[in-house]
């Protein structure tokens, strides 16, 4: 494939142009770990919480190199990274990598030892969250069909949703549903990375017990955990955890996180639950980890 050659060329070029590492010099490095997904499962919260550890450094925006910006080349990618000293960890997060066909193979080619972090949550809640995000603009314009119509109804082809056939009563071709069939995407990651290089974060526990989930992730990254319950407080309005700074002030995620979800009809929730049950089971077996959804 062409991008293999491109990648090899860039790696050769970089090896010729990067000066030898010097322990005292801060420099931009490729990520040690990548939060690859899952979109709307709590990826931003995880990254913000990991940054409580002073050894964790991350670029501000999502980089989307291994899916959308790959043709910009490795030097562009490295340029997006923060400067780090030896011993500090660079972590990137681009949640669309999880369901990208090319990302796992491309990341492996750059560095097969990259640590892969995946936040998962109940795919039904995830789908509603995805819908809430994508409809927030259209709804204001009065153009968005209801979640129920999209998930189990006539869908809306003009939204680029493929809903020509239903699977167990669900429009499984609609992106918001398809992304939640985790095992299909997970297989590509396991084809490229051993399970010991992959860490699964429970997106629900990240809300109810952030200190524990963040500590587990710090350990996976080879860091001495610093996240403690006292590092967190609860947003009085949205009720989601926020980082508590040393002066007691709360640093909460922005207005695009923790949006109110629409009330979804119970029978549609049940149809979705039944649709996902066998898919979830396959995912749990694949990663040898069980969740209560
Ligand atoms: P909603 O806005 O639909 O509630 P991501 O960052 O991967 O896009 O995930 C966004 C989701 O993270 C939010 O979806 C929210 O449910 C969840 N989340 C988890 N912890 C959060 C936190 N501390 N603050 C805000 N949202 C959080």
Automatic annotation (TrEMBL):
Domain Sulfotransferase: 31-247
Cysteine disulfide links: 242-252
Pfam family, one: Sulfotransfer_1
Top-rank lineage group of the source organism: Eukaryota
Signal peptide interval: 1-17
Active site: 40
Record-listed 3'-phosphoadenylyl sulfate binding positions: 40-44, 121, 129, 257-261
Molecular-function annotations in GO: [heparan sulfate]-glucosamine 3-sulfotransferase activity
Sorted UniProt keywords: Disulfide bond, Glycoprotein, Signal, Transferase
UniProt xrefs under PANTHER family: HEPARAN SULFATE 3-O SULFOTRANSFERASE-B, ISOFORM A, HEPARAN SULFATE SULFOTRANSFERASE
Name by which UniProt lists this protein: Sulfotransferase domain-containing protein
Species of provenance: Caenorhabditis angaria
């Amino acid at each position: 494939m062409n991008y293999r050659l491109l990648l090899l060329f860039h790696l050769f070029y970089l090896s010729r142009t990067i000066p030898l590492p010097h322990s005292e010099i801060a420099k931009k490095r490729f990520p040690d770990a990548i939060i690859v997904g899952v979109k709307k499962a709590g990826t931003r919260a995880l990254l913000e919480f990991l940054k409580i550890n002073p050894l964790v450094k991350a670029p501000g925006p999502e980089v989307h190199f291994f899916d959308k910006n790959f043709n910009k080349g490795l030097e562009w990618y490295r340029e997006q990274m923060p400067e780090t000293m030896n011993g500090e960890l660079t972590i990137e997060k681009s949640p669309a990598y999880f369901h990208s066909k090319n990302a796992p193979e491309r990341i492996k080619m750059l560095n097969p030892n990259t640590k892969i972090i995946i936040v998962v949550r109940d795919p039904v809640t995830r789908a509603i969250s995805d819908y809430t995000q994508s409809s927030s603009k259209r709804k204001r314009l009065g153009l968005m069909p209801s979640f129920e119509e999209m998930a189990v109804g006539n869908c809306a082809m003009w939204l680029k949703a493929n809903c020509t056939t239903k699977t167990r009563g669900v429009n499984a071709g609609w992106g918001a549903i398809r992304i939640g069939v985790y095992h299909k995407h997970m297989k590509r990651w396991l084809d490229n990375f051993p399970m010991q290089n992959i860490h699964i974060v429970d997106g629900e526990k990240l809300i109810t017990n952030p200190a524990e989930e963040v500590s587990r992730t710090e350990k996976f990254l080879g860091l001495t955990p610093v996240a403690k319950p006292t590092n967190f407080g609860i947003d009085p309005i949205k009720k989601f955890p926020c980082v508590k700074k040393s002066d007691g002030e709360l640093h909460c995620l922005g207005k695009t996180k923790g949006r109110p979800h629409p009330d979804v009809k119970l029978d549609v929730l049940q149809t979705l639950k039944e649709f996902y049950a066998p898919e979830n089971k396959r995912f749990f077996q694949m990663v040898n980890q069980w969740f209560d959804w």
